Queue: 2 jobs
Job 1
Amino acid sequence: MDTKKICYKCLLEDLDEGKILKTVKEMIDAIPEDKRTDPEEYRRRLEICKKCDSLISGTCIKCGCYVELRAAGKNRTCPNTKDMWHL
């Protein structure tokens, strides 16, 4: 039985990165289709995030979210600035 627990107070060395990625992907898949960002917009948002100084190991240091999950929500905004993801 896996006893590792994902939490905000864990160190990266204590986390199973593969398991975290799998969990985030499952959470994205659980977003209803009508509330999910279309694939092209999702990739565009992630490209913006990859250039941001607030991105550390897949996590936004402004809000603590996993950026892949936040970017997947159609009506979500960037916590750094609401205009960051607008066209």
Note: The two ends are 46 Å apart (CA to CA).
Job 2
Amino acid sequence: MNWKLKTFDELTNHELYALLKLRSLVFVVEQNCVFQDMDDKDQQSLHLLGFEDGILAAYSRLLPAGLSYTEASIGRVVTDPAFRRKGAGKELMQASIDKLEEVFGKQPIRIGAQLYLEAFYTSFGFHTNSTVYIEDGIPHIEMLRL
């Protein structure tokens, strides 16, 4: 996977379109969830894009402490369905943690995770830190990595 880490202003029009298209494909269409994806946090976040043969296969955004939570955060973690079950999700999550710590320093990371992915995130050192809550019709939990 070819990784690119960019600020919002560094994204090309094509990269921005690709990441919004991927987020919409998975979070809106595949998960049948109507929600406001554009939340005014993209402009202050870093964007990690993973390309495979010129196709955006995986994406996440890295949020500095204080933007979504007191701690730094990783959000909008998404893998193109065509690249699933090939290790792209694991590679994306590890790259997200590594890049976040490289840019913001080693620190606690808080995420809002879909409940069904709890075991996946636990494998990266995250621990459940809340009760289950419903966000956009989907059960979620907060998880913290120290």
Note: Strands lie at 2-7, 46-52, 55-63, 72-79, 109-114, 127-128, 133-135, 138-145.
